[in-house]
């Protein structure tokens, strides 16, 4: 049973990585669809938590997502399998493109196709933002709504670097967790 799950994890992350254009935020939606909706390995709330961890960790979000999902599903072996499967497609594509760089650089059709793909990537990123915000709104947690709204205002209105906002949110989360654990003990 474990071997079948590991094989499915490998093939799923390989497939997602091979057919995802536009970076990590695009793969987040597809991972959610695959692991939450199709396989039912992870529930919706847990997936949101895993995505938040992947986004706030340094490095490529696709690899970070593979790490947290792989660990959740199969521990250290799951991490190894999902990361290898995630990095194989970009590695192969970049290696092949490096040999043909000059031909692709000046090809009008390839250039126009890539520009068209940018619109699709924008739409998928918009869908991810909408789904994550809708999840927070449906929770009816005033604290989470405040954090989401406050983070948006700091970024959009005051143009504060997202890194600082993430660090502040980590600090707030740690304080909240500490206070909750403390209140449970007493």
From TrEMBL:
Keywords: Cell membrane, Membrane, Transmembrane, Transmembrane helix. The chain crosses the membrane at residues 73-101, 108-130, 142-175. It comes from the Bacteria. It is found in: Cell membrane. It is a multi-pass membrane protein. InterPro entries: CHR_Transporter (IPR052518), Chromate_transpt (IPR003370). Pfam families: Chromate_transp (PF02417). Belongs to the chromate ion transporter (CHR) (TC 2.A.51) family. This is Chromate transporter.
